[in-house]
Design goal:
The complex is a heterodimer of chains A (255) and B (210).
Chain A lengths: L5 H11 L1 H9 L5 H28 L2 H23 L6 H24 L7 H32 L1 H9 L4 H4 L1 H21 L7 H8 L4 H32 L1 H7 L3
Helix pairs in contact in A: 4-5, 4-6, 5-6, 5-11, 6-9, 6-11, 9-11, 10-11
Chain B lengths: L1 E11 L2 E12 L1 E7 L5 H8 L6 E6 L2 E2 L2 H7 E4 L10 H6 L14 H10 L16 H13 L5 E5 L7 H14 L4 E5 L3 H6 L2 E5 L5 E3 L1
Parallel strand pairs in B: 3-8, 3-9, 6-7, 7-8
Antiparallel strand pairs in B: 1-2, 1-4, 4-5, 9-10
The chains are: A mainly alpha (255), B alpha/beta (210).
């Protein structure tokens, strides 16, 4: 077991935050409020998660686990919509579906095929789902933003292709590719830095709680691949849905 | 062969760009001239189903739908052409599209146009980035012409070309348009010399026959 940090440790840690406030103040960034809100939100959410997880692990009921899973995806989808500034109808639904389908597929392989659990054990399912959904959330936010900004920049090229007989989906296929690439690149970049540049969070956590580093490596590799697959699938599904409904996408981007 | 446009209206955020436009085009080189902002580009885009419109369009007395238009009506936009890496891959791109699958790339016609429009100083697999704006416009022209559509639309197809090349382009249109309906929007006085009929769009939105 990891050595407990305790309240004192936590207070010292919060004092470290003054670095952020100091830089913001000195450089007149005026983001003190954002810093405060973000870290307050993080702390409240994590404490709540900690308390909830105690009960979730104790109950360990499949239906409860699935409800939490759906809630996590819904929350992630809302964040993607807010962060990317996308204003199309049903955006949350499309992103929800993209993350849901991809994470269900990947988590099924991960939990039943690799970890060999016989049911959705909360202790494994919730944290693994969290990592997969969280990464999908970050990448789909980039993907959807890029998709629409590229459509806006390439409006005449898209019209040119449609004027030559392309369907809506054919006309945006080059945009689709660029959005996908932009969404996937950070995931690959982070994968190639692991182990040398940094030790990923999950592996660090396992090592701190006493797991042999060699064993932690197994878990880490499996989760990194799972994240890569989910990120790729969720973005692929998302751009597929969006380009098959190009008409309102064009309307959205001001064409 | 006749393209009949009946009561065509296009609205942008509550304002009419075109209102109840009724007009007939016969096969040949139909030239549209007119004030800027009178809706000429909008008209071509509507015929090509690139934007929503109200009204009906008939070709040979049959009402048109989007699927038919995608395969049989081609438009050259004014600028901002889609390109691939080389001249030839850019020109062949439309033949990969679903609605053009039955069309065959006519190599002889390509060679003829490539020379006629003064592009033969390039090899066909030259990088597209080496082309000037005017050269790219000629590539876009060749690309659309090779599709041999029943309805051929062009928006200012010679805006970046000198008079000498423009004459060759419009001269070619004259022959090319004999067995199809061509609607060409242009400010270029040279176009008038070669066109079969002239339509004038004024800001008030009506059409004069000249």
């Amino acid at each position: 077991m990891a050595k407990p940090i305790g309240l004192n440790g936590l207070i010292i840690s919060y004092l470290v935050l003054t670095v952020l406030f100091a830089v913001s103040y000195m450089e007149k960034l005026r983001i003190e409020k954002d810093i405060f809100v973000s870290y307050l939100r993080m702390s409240v959410q994590l404490f709540l998660a900690g308390f909830v997880l105690i009960y979730v692990f104790k109950i360990d009921n499949t239906i409860v686990n699935v409800i939490i899973f759906l809630f996590m995806i819904l929350f992630a989808s809302r964040i993607v919509v807010d962060r990317s500034g996308v204003k199309i109808k049903n955006a949350t639904l499309f992103i929800f579906l993209s993350i849901f389908i991809s994470s269900v597929v990947v988590l099924a392989v991960l939990i039943f095929g690799i970890v060999h659990l016989h049911k959705l054990n909360a202790r494994y399912f919730i944290p693994l789902a969290g990592m997969v959904i969280g990464n999908s959330m970050n990448s789909t936010a980039i993907g959807i933003e890029r998709f629409f900004s590229k459509i806006k920049d390439n409006r005449s090229k898209i019209e040119d292709l449609m004027g030559l007989g392309a369907t809506e989906e054919e006309a945006v296929s080059f945009v689709k590719g660029e959005a996908l690439k932009a969404a996937l690149l950070p995931t690959f970049a982070s994968a190639s830095g692991m182990g040398v540049v940094f030790l990923p969070g999950m592996m660090t956590g396992q090592i701190l709680s006493g797991v042999m580093p060699t064993q932690a490596v197994y878990y880490q590799i499996v989760i990194v691949i799972a994240i890569g697959a989910t990120v790729c699938l969720s973005n692929y599904i998302m751009v597929k849905i969006l380009s098959s409904r190009l008409k309102f996408c064009l309307t959205y981007s001001g064409i | 062969m006749c393209l009949f446009v009946e009561n065509l209206s296009v609205e942008y955020s509550g304002k009419y760009v075109l209102k109840n436009l009724t007009v007939k085009f016969y096969s040949g080189f139909n030239l549209i001239m007119g004030d800027s902002g009178s809706g000429k580009t909008t008209f071509l885009k509507a015929l090509c189903y690139l934007l929503d419109f109200k009204g009906k369009v008939y070709f040979k007395d049959k009402e048109l739908n989007k699927t038919w238009v995608r395969g049989n009506c081609k438009l050259i936009v004014q600028s901002g052409y889609y390109t691939e890496n080389t001249i030839i891959s850019t020109i062949k791109k439309p033949f990969e599209l679903k609605y053009n699958k039955e069309k065959n790339f006519d190599g002889n016609m390509f060679k003829k146009l490539f020379g006629l429009f003064g592009l033969d100083k390039f090899s066909s697999d030259e990088s597209i980035n080496k082309l000037s704006g005017g050269e790219l416009q000629r590539v876009a022209l060749i690309r659309a012409l090779l599709l041999k559509p029943k309805i051929f639309l062009a928006d200012e197809p010679t805006s970046n070309l000198d008079d000498n090349v423009s004459k060759k382009v419009y001269g070619f249109f004259r022959e090319y348009c004999k067995n199809r309906v061509c609607i060409i929007v242009s400010h270029d006085p040279i176009a008038r010399e070669f066109s079969d009929s002239l339509f004038y769009f004024s800001k008030k939105g009506f059409v004069d026959y000249g």
